Amino acid sequence: MINKLFRKKSVDQIIADAQEGTGLAKVLGVRDLVSLGIAAIVGAGIFSTIGLASYEGGPAISLLFVFVAFACVFTALAYAQFASTVPVSGSAYTYAYVAFGELFAWIIGWALVLEYAVSNTVVAISWSQYFVSMLEGFGINIPKWLAMAPGYAIDAHEKFLSAGMTALSASDKVGLHAYLSAPRVGDVPIIFDLPAGLITVLVTWLVYVGIKESQRASNIMVAVKIGIILLVIAGGMFFVKPENWTPFMPNGVPGVMGSVAAVFFAFIGFDSISTTAEECKNPQRDLPRAMILCLVICTVLYVAITLVLTGMVNYTELNVKDPLAFVFKYVGFDRMAGIVSITSVVAITSALVVYQLAQPRIWMTMSRDGLLWKKFARVHPKYRTPSFATIVTGVVVAVPSLFFKMDFFVDLTSVGTFFAFILVCAGVLYMDYAGLSAKSKFRVPYINGKYLIGLGFIAAWVILYRYGQDTLKEWIELPWLEIIEHKSLLVVFWLAWLILAVMGFKYRFSLLPVTGILINLYLMSQLGASNWIIFLIWLAIGLVLYFMYGYKHSRLNKDV
Predict the structure, then answer these.
(1) Is residue 16's pLDDT more than 70?
(2) Selection from 525, 492, 410, 513 nearest residue 95 by Cα
(3) At residue 86, what are phi and psi to the nearest 5 degrees?
(4) How far is the C-alpha of 379 from the C-alpha of 370, rounded, in Å?
(5) Beta-bridge partner residues of 189
(6) Which among 45, 199, 328, 491 is least surrounded, fewest beta carbons within 10 Å?
(7) What pLDDT digit, counting tens, does each position of 307-326 carry?
């Protein structure tokens, strides 16, 4: 049984399986891929979560963007090597099948549902908020009970009952109004986010009718998106007050690192273009180029816009859902604020398109391997898209977006994505060890880490001992139960670094993939323990499904 669980697929076998009549249209070039990558990355993160991140970390949040981008560069290089070696749909799922075997491939495929389908729920909810705000600017008011998750309204009502109207914030008052004005079935108010559900249905229809149509729509929306961001940067520069950048790090390192989930969410998506490998004209050449290009472009835009926002307005004012529009309202430039609100709707829609493209192709590949029901691999005879998987993705995104809060999904999405990124970086180490890298048309630059990984571990502890006495003192004073509950992920990080140092010395590991593993693992350790508990529950559900269906129907299992 153990052998079956960890049986790997060869690169040649995966490519042969992909050529068995799937019939996906090969229409995408480098420009299209870069456009899709930017569409995925520059979405709800830059248009909403950047405000909360700046509020918590101050102007120094721009450094966190650089740090997270640094982690993503190493991961992007690993993805690029895999994409050039295994040019088929499936992304990290397929790569894990090559490097670690079937069980890990299933786990990654299940985790990718969090990255694509679940994160798209966040994007849909964010789109709804901007859309409703835009309509209000034109004097069109959607009933509040039709445009929010019921949890917000229920929380506002409970807060009103316990503390009175004076304790309610502006958003709480909107939620209370929704609760009181909503139609009822008995004593239960009917409240849901209709715009979020409708946009998901419309985008699902778009990606259902064809990759080329989706790509054209994405290109137009990306042009609008980049234009408005450049306009915000150029226009906002005239309102920057350098004194707003002081203090640069008002809440210290903990304040900056506390925004890891929000900042990382702004980068999620660069890997999604690897799911379109079978629709690329030249995937071995174009996918690596596109992945690196879109990541570099977005990083420059993020850092610039963060500095402009925190320069225009003091960071304490940025805890808002529409920060790009808010800063221009704050400085009295209402016309620009209106333009930003309108174009933000277009910008966030483009992110929805890419994620709705990515998830069905993961499921299609898993189905082709026998791990999911055969219908998930069905390709529409006319539109040449994974039809059934696309419809299921629409349902999976639309239903939660109608009823759930956005903040529930942000951290959960980040945990699943970090997990996938770490395994992809580790997969490159395995490819080097097994000699598979020789088949790669693009390779992560090799830097011998035999001594450097261990020296880095020692140097990190020396720096911590010399400059982190307060941190060490905090650890010493914490009870063991507190360490297990709140610091266990950091313990895992240090143990992983030590193990990689030993293995790197023995097997001459390449430094860059190891660096990617360690940075992603450290960023994971900054997420709350509750998110990890939910993620582990999610994985447990996935394993139950695998052993109930996938293990028995796997093509590799049938070949025995």
Answers:
(1) yes
(2) 513
(3) -125, 80
(4) 16
(5) 184
(6) 491
(7) 998 999 888 888 766 788 78
Q: What b/e readout covers 48-82, taking b as 16+ CB neighbours within 10 angstroms? A: bbbbbbbbbbbbbbbbbbebbbebbbbbbbbbbbb
Q: Tell me which CATH code domain 2-138+195-438 carries.
A: 1.20.1740.10
Average of per-residue pLDDT across 136-152? 83
Going from N- to C-terminal start, the domains of the chain cover 2-138+195-438, 150-191
Token pair recorded at residue 242: 């350098």
**CA 344/CA 327 separation, integer angstroms:** 14
pLDDT digits (tens, 9 = 90+) for 216-255: 666 777 777 788 788 888 888 889 999 999 888 888 877 7
Q: How confident is the model at residue 213 (pLDDT cuts 50, 70, 90)?
A: low
Phi and psi angles of residue 386, each rounded to the nearest 5 degrees, phi first:
-70, 90
**Residue 404, number of CB atoms within 10 A of its CB:** 19
Beta bridge partners of 185: 188
Is the link from the previous residue into 400 a cis peptide, with omega within 30 of 0?
Answer: no
Q: Are 309 and 236 spatial neighbours (Cβ–Cβ below 8 Å)?
A: yes
* pLDDT confidence bin for 403, thresholds 50/70/90: confident
Q: Answer yes or no: are the C-beta atoms of 134 and 345 closer than 8 Å.
A: yes
Tokens (6 digits) for 160: 């009103």
Write a three-state SS string for 252-311: HHHHHHCCHHHHHHCCCCHHHHHHHHHHECCHHHHHHHHHHHHHHHHHHHHHHHHHHHHH
Cβ atoms of 49 and 266 closer than 8 Å? yes
**CA angle in degrees (0–180, nearest 5) for 42-45-46:** 65
Closest CA to 385 of 416, 406, 423, 359: 359
- Residue range 419-430, pLDDT digits in tens: 888 988 998 998
Helix 61-85 and helix 283-312: axis angle, to 10°?
170
Residue type, 426: A
**Range list of β-strands (E), 291-408:** none
- pLDDT tens-digit series, residues 31-48: 888 887 887 777 656 766
Q: What is the pLDDT of residue 460?
A: 92
pTM more than 0.90 = no
Half-sphere exposure of residue 151, counting CA atoms within 13 Å on the CB side? Answer: 9
The values of phi and psi at residue 280, to 5°, are -90, 145
Q: Which two tokens stand for residue 19?
A: 């050529």
Residue 456 has pLDDT above 90, yes or no: yes
**Cα separation, 131 vs 51, whole angstroms:** 18
Max Cα-Cα span within the chain = 71
319 with 259: CB under 8 angstroms? no
The pLDDT of residue 228 is 79
Structure tokens at 56: 């918590």
Residue 189's φ and ψ, nearest 5 degrees, are: -75, 140
Tokens matching residue 273: 């273009």
The 8-class DSSP code of residue 59 comes to: G
Band of residue 83 on the pLDDT scale cut at 50, 70, 90 = confident
Q: Which whole number is the average pLDDT over 70-78?
A: 84
Please name the amino acid found at residue 330.
Y
